[in-house]
Design brief:
2 copies of one chain form a homodimer. Chain A is an alpha/beta fold. Helix content of chain A is about 45%, strand content about 15%. In chain A, the strands form 2 sheets. A 6-stranded parallel sheet of chain A has the order 2-1-3-4-5-11, with helices on both faces. Chain A binds a DNA duplex (30 and 30 nucleotides) through helix 2 and helix 4.
DNA sequence: GAAACATGGCCACCATCTACGAAATTGCCA
DNA sequence: TGGCAATTTCGTAGATGGTGGCCATGTTTC
């Protein structure tokens, strides 16, 4: 509530002397400084944020545009980012776009308002319209997760996890163990996500000169139920592979449940690796591809802090390597129980 | 980037006319207004947030003090609160206290800085020190989750879930089904949480004139492992109850796992209700007490918005009623399988 | 005695908003 | 049509709280 003016009056000095004394910059005699600091403490002085940021053009806040506020994936990102932001005395402001492009555009304009000094932008759909708006704002923004530069040039700072490589690694893991009949349950090839992951899988097969058997590849929609269906088809076809790479944990769990019901032993009869390394995967001892969301967050925040510090930096893209969290479902199998 | 001065110059009017035209307040001739609005659009004018909030003393932000940023409980709260904040054009700023009292105090001072217009404050430990700081700030703050007014007077706006009643309901549910030997696994009685929940359990027994059998009450530390241990003790004692109320889902799941390993059929031999209604509970078909975190968030945000609107309101406390999410583990049992 | 340094007040600035009052326009009646 | 009041229009002048440049004054040092 108290301002430097009131302190100045109480101390019998001018407001600017108070400012200097409290900021520690410029010349103030030691006794005056002590007096001012004492008064400030007593009067409960706290500098006014709005005034300071009007002058300094820094708000100490970073906007977090996320499409889905109740998704653990994003929360882990936020957690990671917050760790780094804290070190720089910055705070995340949550802006929830609900995946709605109109809201997204509206939130982007908040940036120009000085609502925040920068933004970490996550979108389901990076397109010319919203990326142009980001560019137009001229403010520091880091795109994360699935932005792809249209012409391969780094127009933005960007952090993403190489899901292609995650799936590739999982398949390679099985191949290295000597499996040749490896199944895949993925998402729709029409989506970028679906395509990217499947290519990773195909790449591993090709690298190892393993012929692709189309019957072993099923498509789901990332729900547990679709995982069940896909697994059931494999069983019905009597083409149960030796190992299965699944493009997310939920589908993998669906598949596991069918196996359990039908006496297919995991990992003895069928080894499985899922993707996301969700809490459920940990709980159910499902091997999974670790997407390191916190690492995304940390890197995005780091890039952003650096850019706020120095806007002239070259634009950078950070490609994070996923890792395998190997658990029971992909253990080198002893002979099947049944 | 453009300011009202530049627009004023472009339109050949004074800055205050621009302000009036854009804000829609005061008298501006229709043609000038139209011109100014057109220019503002063309020049990409967005009002400066810092300047506006310096003048208006509103930042459109609400601080969210939370002890643990990656706890599903809290981010459900955040989700609920965000819904309400959005309606009022407010945004949540996350302040992570890590349960550290010193950090908590520091963050509280952010409030006075005008960092936010109000705060939703969640603490592991509400004590005279931090509540005094809240009071001293004179800013709108809503305490949630486990604050208890020391003298029963409403010094603060406050939202909490009646965990006492949640546990009581769970016990009552079993009692109504005719069970008389009901076990309880809770937290340490030295903690407020532990005490509160256990009282709810005892209350249900007393109400129904059921004698308490101390051998059926075990203490854990809210981890799965401690749930396992507690259940194992019940088994070793050969005092397996008919039903079990457990003070959180993790411990309940630990108990379930022991039962599964040792052939105790759930719910045939033993019915279980946990607490939190976590994702895991849903996944494992564990009955649970629903703490309605989103509802806490919504109510906290609502109280806060109302208080920011009108600081003179009476202080209010909202006590939310938990509900039972009944699933398989508490189904009226057919005869046990084995 | 002059240069070097320390001290602290004054003022402009950041961008917006608003109270006030001057100026312009309109309406109304004689 | 002139005159007066009511109404509309719009600019001037702060105010918000903090910061930093500039400069006048005071002190020390050689």
């Amino acid at each position: 509530m108290a301002t430097i003016y009131e302190i100045a009056r109480a101390a019998g000095v001018s407001p600017s002397t108070v400012a200097r004394a409290l900021r520690g910059s410029g010349y103030v005699s030691p006794d005056k400084r002590a007096l001012i600091q004492k008064l400030a403490r007593e009067m409960g002085y706290v500098p006014n944020h709005a005034a300071r940021s009007l002058k300094s053009k820094r708000s100490q806040k970073v906007l977090f545009l996320i499409p889905d506020i109740y998704n653990p994936f994003y929360f882990r990102m936020i957690k990671g980012a917050t760790e780094v932001l804290e070190e720089h005395q910055y705070f995340p402001v949550l802006c929830h776009t609900k995946g709605d492009p109109a809201l997204e555009m509206k939130m982007l304009s908040n940036l120009q308002q000085g609502f925040g000094d920068g933004m970490i932008f996550v979108s389901f759909d990076f397109n010319p319209k919203n990326t142009a708006a980001v560019n137009a704002s001229g403010c520091p923004v880091v795109l994360t997760n699935n932005y792809q530069s249209p012409d391969g040039r780094d127009a933005f700072d960007c952090v993403f996890v190489d899901t292609f490589d995650g799936i590739r690694m999982a398949a390679q893991h099985f191949i290295s163990r000597g499996f040749t009949r490896i199944g895949y349950i993925g998402g729709n090839i029409a989506t970028q996500t679906g395509r990217e992951r499947f290519s990773g899988f195909q790449h591993a097969l090709q690298q190892n000169h393993i012929a692709a058997d189309q019957r072993l590849f099923k498509v789901g929609d990332f729900t547990m139920e679709s995982g069940r269906r896909a697994m059931q088809e494999l069983i019905d076809q009597r083409t149960i592979p030796q190992a299965l790479v699944v493009a997310n944990d939920l589908m993998a769990i669906g598949a596991m449940r069918v196996c359990k019901e039908q006496g297919i032993h995991i990992p003895g009869d069928l080894a499985i690796i899922g993707m996301d390394n969700s809490d459920l995967a940990q709980f159910l001892d499902l091997s999974s591809i670790q997407m390191c969301e916190e690492e995304i967050g940390r890197n995005a925040a780091r890039l952003l802090m650096e850019r706020i510090e120095n806007p002239k930096l070259e634009k950078r893209t950070i490609r994070l390597q996923p890792s395998l969290a190997l658990r029971k479902t992909s253990e080198a199998g002893e002979a099947p129980a049944g």
